[in-house]
């Protein structure tokens, strides 16, 4: 068994109706909270009155901050400047990955009060983060990024000179991840599709990562099985309680797995795509994963035919197709065919829909070799990465 390490995880509360535990959990950290949510869908849902009434019953006062879209360093810095003198005992992030990432970054900087630009990887001085962080409770309302279980907050500056980078430290990990599958009931189909494919991609990339370990393999395997049985069912009807549970679990363990062993080429490409173009992160992952998997398998066969990732890809092909008898080559075909079928069934758009053209490929390729690409199971050449993009324009 290979050597591995396990980084810090939050306390996890998982199950239908666990949202009701939030007020008491928050009260354990103090009487003053900052609620960080998305732009407005939560406030218009039936969950918001229950959350606020519960906080009131616990004697908790709160400030509310809404995050419109993916968070930027400027947004985080403005929030920290406005709030760092407030007596905030706990930050509660309730929403999708963007809201949770914003809440995580703000919780990390409320007490120190400095700019997040000091700590972003690959940008600026990259100073060590010393903390202390304000206690953070993460409550995901989508099944996608797994941010509730990770130590990184992804921040973006959009535009052709922009970037998408992480503020990353174990001190940023949530104290509690409260995962209530019922919160997925209000997700529209397009959100379910994009987020679900992001979660699956994280599971697959963690499973074949160059740093993969027995513990994360077991988590990723169970998560992929849950996604196999839950993603399309949830897309068809968010009222399916079993599908909600499966996808909430898949997203949670995808976050745990990626936090331990990293990701791969899809996420390496999703970063520049999301920075340079208005492509939602989950859409970028979902539209690329079938082709990226094909290119990885072809590169491994050519350059490293004995690589264990080829066997792992075959295992996933058998899992998704439910055909345990397939030999390795047939299992690879089944894997790619299944991913392509999901991409079509979930209505994931091409990159051209967001303005990407063949002329943009060199710039995207040049900016794709961040931390995620470093744990891809095979070193891809620029021509390989370009082929992934070209196939999805």
What does this structure look like?
The chain is α/β, with parallel strands linked by helices. It contains 13 helices and eight strands. The protein has helices at residues 22-27, 47-57, 73-83, 97-109, 189-208, 214-236, 241-261, 265-276, 281-303, 308-321, 328-345, 361-366, 382-391, and strands at 11-14, 32-37, 61-66, 90-95, 136-140, 152-157, 163-168, 176-179. It has a six-stranded parallel beta sheet with strand order 1-8-5-4-2-3. Strands 6-7 form a two-stranded antiparallel sheet. Helix 5 (189-208) packs antiparallel against helix 6 (214-236) and helix 10 crosses helix 11. The chain is globular and about 60 Å long. The mean pLDDT is 95.
Parts with pLDDT < 50 across at least 5 consecutive residues: none
Secondary structure category? alpha/beta
**How is the main sheet built?**
6 strands, parallel
Tell me the series of helices and strands, N- to C-terminal: EHEHEHEHEEEEHHHHHHHHH
Shape, please? Answer: globular
Strand composition percent: 5-15%
Instruction: Say how many strands there are.
Output: 8
Provide the residue-averaged pLDDT. Answer: 95
| Helix proportion range | 40-55%
C-alpha Rg (nearest Å): 20 Å
Placed side by side, the strands forming the largest sheet appear as: 1-8-5-4-2-3
Give me the number of helical elements: 13
The N- to C-terminal Cα distance equals 42 Å
